[in-house]
Amino acid sequence: xxxxxxxxxxxxxxxxxxxxxxxxxxxxxxxxxxxxxxxxxxxxxxxxxxxxxxxxxxxxxxxxxxxxxxxxxxxxxxxxxxxxxxxxxxxxxxxxxxxxxxxxxxxxxxxxxxxxxxxxxxxxxxxxxxxxxxxxxxxxxxxxxxxxxxxxxxxxxxxxxxxxxxxxxxxxxxxxxxxxxxxxxxxxxxxxxxxxxxxxxxxxxxxxxxxxxxxxxxxxxxxxxxxxxxxxxxxxxxxxxxxxxxxxxxxxxxxxxxxxxxxxxxxxxxxxxxxxxxxxxxxxxxxxxxxxxxxxxxxxxxxxxxxxxxxxxxxxxxxxxxxxxxxxxxxxxxxxxxxxxxxxxxxxxxxxxxxxxxxxxxxxxxxxxxxxxxxxxxxxxxxxxxxxxxxxxxxxxxxxxxxxxxxxxxxxxxxxxxxxxxxxxxxxxxxxxxxxxxxxxxxxxxxxxxxxxxxxxxxxxxxxxxxxxxxxxxxxxxxxxxxxxxxxxxxxxxxxxxxxxxxxxxxxxxxxxxxxxxxxxxxxxxxxxxxxxxxxxxxxxxxxxxxxxxxxxxxxxxxxxxxxxxxxxxxxxxxxxxxxxxxxxxxxxxxxxxxxxxxxxxxxxxxxxxxxxxx
Length: 615
Ligand code: ADP
Ligand code: MG
Hints:
Elements: H1 3-24, H2 31-55, H3 62-75, H4 79-110, E1 118-122, E2 125-129, E3 139-142, E4 152-156, E5 158-162, H5 164-167, E6 173-176, E7 180-181, E8 186-187, E9 192-196, H6 204-214, H7 221-252, H8 256-270, H9 273-292, E10 295-297, H10 300-306, E11 309-315, H11 316-320, E12 326-332, H12 337-347, H13 354-363, E13 372-378, E14 382-387, E15 390-395, H14 397-403, E16 415-421, E17 424-432, H15 439-448, E18 453-457, H16 462-472, E19 476-478, H17 483-496, E20 502-507, H18 513-518, E21 521-525, H19 531-536, E22 539-541, H20 548-582, H21 588-606
Parallel strand pairs: 11-18, 11-20, 18-19, 20-21, 21-22
Antiparallel strand pairs: 1-2, 1-3, 3-9, 4-7, 4-9, 5-6, 5-8, 10-22, 12-17, 13-14, 14-15, 15-16, 16-17
Magnesium ion binds next to helix 11.
């Protein structure tokens, strides 16, 4: 409990004791001053807020409703009721602020990945510095038990990393020299010497923290609806109460005190706080629960939309497959196998494409960058670079056609990287990729969730693309697509969905950032993917596991169900109480009790959204 909440608790306890004493004291003419004293003790801030709101022109909120109702009760001579209503209201408020605080805390706790310092070596001594002061390319040391402060590559050391805070994955990940590490993981065993590849602001931790902090800015339709609803609802209720107080006494000779009493009860009942609080809280909980599982959702609107997913469109390389290719054959023409691989690896040295990374890996020797000039990437085709003064092109048959090299088909299965030296064909390298362990399961899970269609888009050849699609059980596959074609295909698919249905595109961000932003919901692989993807995407999967798409959809459905339960429940009880109140079947205590009760239950229900372990 915060200090403010504790103070409120003491205020409530003191007022409750004083209020209870009033029932035993023969107050006589002192009754009004005594009750007023207790009333101001418990309610001064509500009254003050109501007055301030009126001064700011924002009249209708729950403070106003409570002030009006309780002042009204006093005016009618029902002092105890006035105090009681205020007391209950404050108990409800305290509970609510406690519940909201708790949810927030559990989200910040689970987001407890911000590193406090980085160790650097200076004149043979290890000193701690602010992670923000470490430049790219500097060497940092991470001891066992410490958080990795910045993204980088391991220079030296062997250790296992606890990535649970980022990916929800409990199995530790083993890293050794040459492996990339991301900030926010915890180094479990050995000492690691890491060369940083990003400054702190650009590191994974900062991005995730930003993302989670800003996620509540993007409101769900339901949230916007509730805000709008409250905007119209409160004035309507106040007008209703006014009519109830004035019309019967004026037109039908009713008793003033009787009808004003009913109008006040009507006011108390109509307070919409349960909805206004519990719905954003549910979405907040859903987003927090998702991030616990390594799924970062950038806003309530996306969490809401996921439940309506109809089509799921996948990129192949790096999304459904690992994107780490093994070289299965090298078929040179005129030059040696080693020379062919060397040319390819050098030409690919500046690219981030999974194919490039794999070729460099297969080459095994360190890359001498001074031999490579004018490296350019031709997206969807391959690369071109000047190596040792010769123009090397490496890529698919389309690229060979473009430069007029006389390429040859290969009988082996796999992705073919053709290589040309000064526009003369020099042979090809066959590489093959493996599908991710959970890829087939992902398609099955999505089918079970009622997803109408799963589609794969790839720039790879027909043979490779169709083999993967068949293996995984996808409904449709489109091959040989350039990055621009992927956008066109997604636009075609967008036409196929129903009015409220949503299209999800899942990619690794290499060559597909435009598609990610074109889809209704773009999901990016965060671990493997590029920074551009994480920026363009609406949802980021930290552990690159496609099955987390199904998890995200389940979390979304669960959150929306909780939201619906809260709407139906609180509006239902409100409606019932309004009716009872109008017919004088509910008094003011019952009204306020129902109001606080509904709010407590709605908030408790909302906090269930945070629990996502079972999905
Ligand atoms: P995907 O849709 O499978 O993710 P891309 O659009 O990234 O594929 O690439 C499509 C095709 O273009 C690849 O299958 C490959 O043949 C070729 N290609 C793209 N980039 C490169 C590269 N850096 N080196 C070699 N070939 C490449
Ligand atoms: Mg790709």
